[in-house]
Amino acid sequence: MVVVQDGPIPFLCRVGRVCRLWNTASSSPVLWRKVSLSYCWSAPGKKLMPKIENKIKETLNWLVENRFSQLRDFSLCHWKNNVDYAVEVVSQSCPHLRHLSLSYCTGLTPKAFHSLGFHSPFLQSINLQHSEFQVEGVLEYLENHGSQIKQIWFTQGLKNDRLLSAITRGYCPDLELLEVNTKLDSKDCELSVCIQALQMACPKLKTFRMLNVRPLHKTMRNVTESTSGFPLLEELCIATTSYSCLTDKDLWDILFNSTRLRVLDLRGCSRITPSGLASLPCLELECLFWGQYFSSHIGLSSPKKGLHMVTQKWNQTLQQLDIANQLFTEEDLMIAMSYLAQANAADTLRSLNLCGTRITLPALRSAIGQMTALNYLNLSSCRYLPRGVKRIYRGQEDIRQFLDKLE
Question: Where is the F-box domain (predicted)?
Fold first, then answer.
């Protein structure tokens, strides 16, 4: 239970020194299938003495030889030195490796990816978020072994857009998860992507995320036949902390055949309209995140209408709804809430974010009281509500007390 919650390191290393029985229990390979190593020998980025570097390598070698025989999932966090060495040792000695995560690491060269290609035939998932690496090594690996990769994460950088180009050229035909992100404080992070080419190259994609990255849509030339879209897509996230130019047509081009979609995250996409959402082919959407969180544009838009088309379409399936800072009219919010308060819908919705909207007390009274499963309600910055109620409510008891006050 401890290993499942906190991982085997450092717990198993410590209890293994208690006695022989604890040592026997902690050395069981089944407990070492998922391992995460942070840089605990010194502060990240600090130059290491040769003695410390040797100690790191010796410790890693001992773990590989004595504990990692069934290793499936391996992660390195904040490693600035010996990253190549760690990847090579693990890949050469752990034939069952399926997932590799390198977070905030530097110094990764093609040498490590050559080792993965030769020694890790079951590797399916690569996470390179916020790490610095020589992109040529990743491209060569994907060209030769991309057919076995089903999940890939990376952070947008000066040369990393070549990874996305390689994926759209068909290097990873069985890809099921693709995430491209950037730091929250990054500005104007744009990335050209040909959705049509990506749909043709990755027909099995189930999760597609572009976090704080503004996609610039490119079109394919000399293509007469229409693609099949993303028929298996279950999650689409194009969230940003800045202004997004995504339009209804852009969204339709991505989702025109995604009937299985369950999660749709459009935070920051202010050009998307209720009619554009209502036209989507997915009928069982469970999570819709449509809040606007960039402060420079809040309050400058004119009142919106049509939210009821969204809640009417998915009122039977929505579990989470976020429309923070969306300037729908009071009347429109009243109608939209009424659809969420219907018999079957009221038992489904669990989270409702109305922060910064024009929601009124009458709309809340008629709707919230009927929502039996609701355990999160955000009413902060709602200027049409009286003082004392404009806050976040967590848990059904907290929401019930709020309703008692309204009565």
Answer: 12-37
Residue-by-residue DSSP string for 81-94: SSHHHHHHHHHHH-
Say yes or no to pLDDT of 299 above 50. no
Helix (H, G, I), strand (E, B) or coil at 352: strand
Q: 394 φ, ψ to 5°?
A: -120, 125
Which tokens sit at 362? 């009458």
* 10 preceded by a cis bond (ω within 30 of 0): yes
Residue 9 backbone class (left: φ over 0; alpha: ψ -120 to 50; beta: rest): beta
**396: pLDDT strictly greater than 80:** yes
pLDDT at 47 over 90: no
C-alpha torsion sign, points 362, 365, 370, 375: positive
| CA angle, 260 then 264 then 267, to 5° | 170
**Which pairing describes strands 376-378 and 351-353: parallel, antiparallel, or unpaired?**
parallel
Q: Find the helix packing angle between 110-119 and 83-93, rounded to 10°.
A: 10
Indicate the burial class of 192 (C-beta count within 10 angstroms; 0-12, 13-18, 19 or more). exposed
Rounded to 10 deg, the angle between the 110-119 and 135-145 helix axes is 20
The pLDDT assigned to 297 comes to: 47
Query: What would the DSSP string read from start to end of 274-314?
Result: HHHHHTSS-S---EEE-----TTTTT-SPPB--HHHHHHHH
Q: Are 216 and 192 in contact (CB under 8 A)?
A: yes
Per-residue pLDDT tens over the stretch 33-45: 999 988 766 665 5
* Beta partners for residue 101, in sequence order: 75, 127
Nearby residues of 341 by Cβ (< 8 Å), 6 or more positions away: 366, 367, 368, 369, 370, 371
3-state helix, strand, coil in the chain (%, to 5): 35, 15, 50
Q: Which residues pair with 151 in a beta bridge?
A: 125, 177
**H-assigned helices in 147-268:** 161-168, 195-201, 248-255
Residue 191 C-beta-side C-alpha neighbours within 13 Å: 29
Closest CA to 43 of 6, 80, 13, 68: 80
The predicted-structure confidence for 56-83, as pLDDT tens digits, reads as follows 889 899 999 999 999 999 999 988 888 9
Residue matched to tokens 């610095």 = 132
User: Do the beta carbons of residue 81 and residue 105 sit within 8 Å?
Assistant: no
